[in-house]
Write a structure and sequence with these properties.
The complex is a heterodimer. Chain A is α/β, with parallel strands linked by helices. In chain A, about 35% of the residues lie in helices and about 20% in strands. Chain A contains 26 helices and 26 strands. The chains are: A alpha/beta, B mainly alpha.
């Protein structure tokens, strides 16, 4: 029997509401973390997973308090300890890696100094030994040339490198337990895969126990031995990670796995209805009752207890888990997307280039943009009516920039944006007439920011209706109710403010606002990345349904290749503001592909312990596109030599109609990729 | 963590919103004290002409510098006028002029700040440099110049004070606008093609209103102090109108042997300023614009 290093016993944490009611954020949590084990805690936002992780280091957020239970570490209860004693444990015995390393590092102190500080606090090393230790730590987290990195400031490092520094700092005290709160969520796909691989290595190498908190089952699948699934402040399922991901015996986990889009399956996954109950609104019965496909009458009034199943070594909180045990595999059914593609071209970008460079005075006076190496260059895309085209790439690939220019929010340096074959759209908002503005609408990534917090839903949706159609009074109200129904929201939402809605509901309101203008083209900028997985599928399905109803064209920007696979007809892969590959989505996801597409596809994390990401290229971040040659030359693992550095690669067309921009002949591209 | 938003709230009428804010303000001891002082002063300003026991300008040489007594509660001044009468009437002018002055300051400062924040670029640069230039002029000198050129009538004082105290609000409003301007809902309104006016009115003002109001309330107390300083220097209201600044100025030489003639206006002025300050503080806290929130760890 391995040693247990952290014991959570009947832990409940909550707060007092204004009315004096006690509202529970965590409800009666019990679990053990063994030595050397990596435990993944998954759940939607608001499920209490971060609160649990913080309690494991004896910290309860301001405003919350412990209602009952304990967190035992080395047989002392952390939650009852004095701050002075906790300081001795935090950092030395239990370390934490935060979500956003960029914010966790002090911006005006050098990396080396910050690690040194951690070492001074958490180890007894002398000064000379510490210096040695710093480069040792930086080496361990695989940062190139530790000596130079130590002399840099945090802002001089990329997101992935910052996260590595945070890992190095956490390891400074050689902790027994490492808590990771969404450590890869803000990172690019490729970087994410690299950081996870590093964490895996460290877990094995040092024997540290890890608690990995994330909403992303894909990331959890790659690192954890055991998974705890949380829902509404309770543990609903706990067991070995393989069993949970392959044969989930709790309806919530089952539904969750079904709603995640996968690379191997085109089409939209089924969504889970409803949303997680708000803390304090549940009084009896199973908290998952109203979203559950397997619920019975008794689930409504009786709360199931966590039940231990010896043969599976699993804890489950459900009356009906047996019916799921027989249904062994997660049978993912997808709604095939209907292509409403028409032959008519609706939007044409030709030779579009965009520059962010600060313009010289002379150019400012002449009102022109001069930059011989612009951020975005050579963009030629034809978009057909009714099509969903996705722009994919890492952050900095220029995908959102292109979107902004189409919307008229960012002036282009050159090139033509043509609507409906004959109308030139100016890239300057002021030069577009109201109709040009109406035909293109935007949906943003984060509905918290895209909806004015001081407007009701009614006011939000009324805006485009008033502006473009001049609707008033009863007619306006009728139209708003109509639109709300189209996005599956009831009439009573009209008087609500955005803060009273859940993430998915907010995004629906944003969708309704976009459709209110009766646009021809909708630009979707990462519309699902701020949403929970179970909600993501619902929003994607809604978008698809609306597209079929209205014949709208979508330009869909995303970094998530699985989501893109699910919804798009055609995909354009971008790197450093240059196109790498354009083609029908089924062909882009098959080989041969551009080496960069291969990197992206390899790095996708699937919620399956058997599918490991393939790390093809280094996760270096390039600041500027190269002056000459192929945009991907700096990271390409298959670089041919001088030709890649001096000449822009030609477009090669595959049998499937997929255009790849690479010097390597198609046959050779394919050969290596299949092996 | 948004713990308070968990309960669904219905759309409230403006009246309900305002009364809720006032109740929240009064639920804090400092807010309660501030509000009580302010309300006391405002009521006093309204009713003082009716309750004043004597004529404020009745000079009586036989009653010069009488100590407080049952007849003259706060004593009399060097011209034999009743100090109590003059004190309760002394806040009226100051309160009225500075209240309207603050409104003007709020209006032009707030709107210009929001406009600069929204438009940005060269317009913003130019306007802000002009505002900076004005900020560098000592306001009291400039006020003295204006007052000596145009006189000390209310029609001069209100806009002049409003102008000089609005400069600071421009900066606050501009900064508050910058906070919301980058949000997607503004981008979205722009992309839809709304006019600048519509963006300011519908999208920005509801989100910066609170910050500007709090700043305006703070400016009010500063302006009150400034106005009283002007009176003290003889450039505010003209005698014999009762005014605290003027009273303090007249009686300051008599402080050693007739303290009562100066204490009463000082207490009046400072309590009003403290009252406004505490109220503005409580107002900011009630609106949730409290900068001194606790650090998480």
């Amino acid at each position: 029997m391995t040693e247990i290093i952290q014991k959570v016993k009947n832990l409940s944490i909550g707060f007092k509401s204004k009315k004096g009611e006690e509202i529970l954020i965590l409800r009666d949590i019990s679990t053990n973390i063994k030595k050397g084990e990596t435990v993944g805690i998954v759940g939607e936002s608001g499920s209490g997973k971060s609160t649990l992780a913080l309690a494991m280091m004896g910290y309860v957020k301001h405003g919350l308090y412990t209602i009952g239970g304990e967190c035992e570490f080395n047989s002392s209860n952390l939650l009852k300890m004095k701050n002075r004693d906790l300081e001795k444990i935090r950092g030395r015995k239990i370390a934490m890696i935060p979500q956003n390393a960029g914010q966790a590092l002090t911006p005006n102190l050098k990396i080396g100094y910050q690690i040194d500080e951690a070492l001074q606090l958490h180890s007894d090393l002398k000064e000379e030994e510490r210096e040695q230790k710093i480069s040792e730590l930086l080496n361990k987290v695989r940062l190139p040339s530790p000596e130079t990195i130590a002399l840099r400031y945090p802002h001089e490092l990329s997101g992935g490198q910052q996260q590595r520094v945070a890992v190095a700092m956490a390891l400074a005290g050689t902790p027994d337990l490492l808590l990771l709160d969404e450590p890869t969520t803000g990172l690019d796909v490729t970087t994410q895969a690299h950081v996870l691989e590093l964490l895996n290595f460290i877990a094995k190498d040092t024997g540290t126990s890890m608690v990995y908190v994330s909403h992303d089952l894909g990331a959890i699948a790659q690192v954890s031995d055991r998974i705890i699934v949380m829902y509404s402040g309770e543990i609903v399922l706990e067991g070995p990670s393989r069993d949970i991901l392959k044969k989930p015996i709790h309806p919530y986990t089952y539904g969750l796995l079904k709603s995640i889009p996968k690379l191997s399956l085109a089409g939209l996954p089924q969504s889970m209805p409803g949303s997680q109950p708000q803390p304090g609104t549940m009084h009896r019965g199973c908290s998952f009752f109203d979203r559950c496909d397997f619920s019975e009458e008794k689930c409504k009034n009786n709360s199931p207890q966590l039940e231990y199943l010896e043969e599976l070594n699993t804890n489950v909180r459900c009356f009906n888990y047996k019916s799921l045990m027989n249904d062994s595999q997660v049978n993912q059914t997808v709604n095939k997307i209907k292509t409403s593609l028409q032959d008519k071209e609706i939007l044409n970008l030709s030779e579009v280039s965009i520059s962010y460079a600060k313009q010289k005075l002379l150019d400012q006076v002449l009102n022109r943009i001069s930059d011989d190496n612009p951020t975005v260059k050579d963009i030629n895309i034809n978009i057909k009516k009714g099509e969903t085209i996705a722009l994919v790439g890492e952050s900095g690939s220029g995908k959102s920039t292109i979107l902004k220019s189409i919307a008229g929010l960012l002036r282009t340096k050159g090139g033509i944006i043509k609507f409906d074959q004959n109308r030139n759209l100016s890239s300057d908002l002021k030069e577009r007439d109201p109709n040009d503005l109406r035909i293109i609408q935007l949906i943003f990534q984060n509905p918290d920011e895209s909806l004015n917090p001081n407007h009701t839903v009614e006011e939000i949706i009324a805006q485009p209706l008033k502006l473009y159609f001049g609707l008033k009074g009863e007619e306006l109200k009728k139209n708003i109710i109509d639109l709300l129904q189209k996005v599956r929201l009831g009439e009573f939402y009209m008087s609500r403010y955005p803060r009273q809605l859940s993430g998915g509901e907010k995004q629906r309101v944003a969708v309704a606002r976009a459709f209110a203008a009766k646009p021809d083209i909708i630009l979707c900028d990462e519309v699902t990345s701020a949403l929970d997985v179970s909600v993501q599928a619902a929003v994607l399905n809604l978008l698809q349904q609306l597209k079929e109803d209205f014949g709208t064209t979508y330009i869909f920007v995303s970094h998530d290749l699985a989501v893109v696979r699910a919804i798009s007809d055609r995909v354009a892969v971008l790197y450093q503001g240059r196109l790498c590959e354009v083609g029908p989505s089924k062909d882009v996801y098959q080989f041969p592909s551009h080496p960069y597409t291969e990197v992206l596809l390899g790095a996708v994390l699937e919620p399956d312990p058997d599918i490991k990401p393939k790390l093809v290229a280094e996760d270096i971040v390039e600041e500027k596109p190269p002056q000459k040659g192929c945009s991907f030359q700096g990271r390409c693992s298959r670089i041919l030599g001088d030709i890649c550095k001096s000449e822009v690669p030609p477009w090669q067309i595959t049998n499937g109609g997929n255009s790849i921009r690479c010097h390597i002949p198609l046959k050779e591209l394919q050969k290596d990729q299949i092996n | 963590m948004k713990l308070d938003n968990i309960y669904q709230e219905e759309k409230k009428s403006n009246f309900a919103k305002v009364s809720e804010i006032i109740i929240t303000m009064a639920s804090r001891p400092s807010g309660f004290i501030g509000l009580s002082i302010l309300i006391f002063h405002v009521i006093l300003a309204f009713i003082s002409p009716y309750i004043a026991p004597y004529d404020f300008k009745a000079i009586n040489p036989t009653l010069m510098l009488q100590a407080p007594s049952a007849e003259y509660w706060f004593g009399t001044d060097d011209l034999g006028r009743d100090v109590f009468t003059r004190t309760i009437l002394g806040g009226r002018t100051a309160l009225t002029i500075t209240f309207f002055g603050s409104l003007i300051a709020l209006l032009w400062g707030g709107l210009l700040g929001i406009f600069c924040g929204l438009v940005g670029g060269k317009t913003d640069d130019i306007v802000m440099r002009i505002v900076d230039a004005f900020l560098s002029i000592p306001w009291i000198l400039a006020m003295l110049l204006i007052v000596s050129l145009l006189g000390t009538s209310t029609e001069v004082l209100i806009p002049a004070l409003g102008f000089f105290y609005g400069k600071g609000i421009v900066r606050v409003a501009r900064a508050a606008t910058h906070d919301v301007i980058a949000k997607d809902f503004i981008v979205s309104a722009r992309a839809r093609g709304h006019s600048n006016f519509s963006i300011i009115w519908n999208e920005i003002i509801p989100n910066v209103r609170d910050a500007i109001l709090v700043e305006g309330a703070m400016r009010w107390s500063w302006m009150l102090l400034g106005f009283s300083s002007l009176s003290f220097l003889g450039f505010g209201v003209s005698p014999p109108t009762p005014d605290w600044g003027l009273m303090i100025s007249n009686a300051r030489g008599l402080m050693s042997f007739a303290y009562w003639s100066v204490i009463a206006p000082i207490v009046g002025l400072s309590s009003l300023i403290i009252g406004i300050n505490l109220t503005a503080d409580a107002f900011a806290k009630a609106l949730g614009i409290d900068r001194s929130t606790k650090a998480p760890v």
